[in-house]
Amino acid sequence: MSTTRPFSPGDRGPEPSGASGVSGAAAPAPDGSSGGSVAAEASAGGSGDALAPVESAQQTAGRQVRTLDFADQSGVVPLARDFARQALYAWGWLPAASADRRAAAEDVLLVVSELVTNACLHAEGPDALLIAYDNKVIRVEVSDKGTGQPAPRTPHRAGRPGGHGMFIVQRLCLDWGVVRTPGQAGKTVWAELGAPA
Asked: What are the C-alpha distances in Å from 181 to residues 123, 186, 187?
């Protein structure tokens, strides 16, 4: 697994976020919808209500995208979890009809928490959260202005306090990585989780 790969594994094409190095313009998502980067979609709404998700303009072929801008927000980890939980309700993951669906929803919420917490601890806080669903995969992206490279602590020591965030993300997700746009500060950390059958 590469944590700097500009493309997701498999046949899904370029990063749906458009953060694959394309500067100034959003790359199209694999389904033809407007993929847009986290920051671009978060600023596109202009509603002034930071709690309201900024929906993508096109939601074709089952792809649904919600973004949250963290500008001037406090308590960003619970805010991010609540935002992700609302998306899961809207997409029918919650209330869960089975134990597998409940576990999958909890995994998504845990990954959101870990990525936002890492941005708080190591990157002066997150800028925005994007969560996208395409009937097979949920993708979580957290953008920040940090320069560091997230990585699971090795060796991982379960009894040691702290340092478990990226290990958890690595264990729960199909894949994850970091995308940087040349000439722009910061990065986007993304993770993908499979939808339950």
From this structure: 16, 8, 7
pLDDT tens digits for range 62-118: 789 999 999 999 999 999 999 999 999 999 899 999 999 999 999 999 999 999 999
Count the helices and strands in the chain (H runs, E runs).
4, 6
| pTM recorded for the entire structure | 0.69
Rg (CA), the chain: 16
Other CB atoms within 10 A of residue 197 CB: 7
Is the preceding peptide bond at 196 cis, omega within 30 degrees of 0? no
Q: Are 65 and 130 in contact (CB under 8 A)?
A: yes
Structure tokens at 11: 């046949």
Closest CA to 189 of 51, 10, 15: 15
pLDDT tens-digit readout, 136-147: 899 999 999 998
Q: Helices 99-122 and 165-172 sit at what angle, rounded to 10 degrees?
A: 150
Other beta carbons within 10 Å of 121: 12
Are 128 and 37 within 8 A, CB to CB? no
User: How crowded is residue 80: how many other Cβ atoms within 10 Å of its Cβ?
Assistant: 25
* Spatial distance between the Cα atoms of 78 and 54, rounded to a whole number of angstroms: 18
Q: Which of 43, 46, 39, 1 is nearest to 18 (CA)?
A: 39
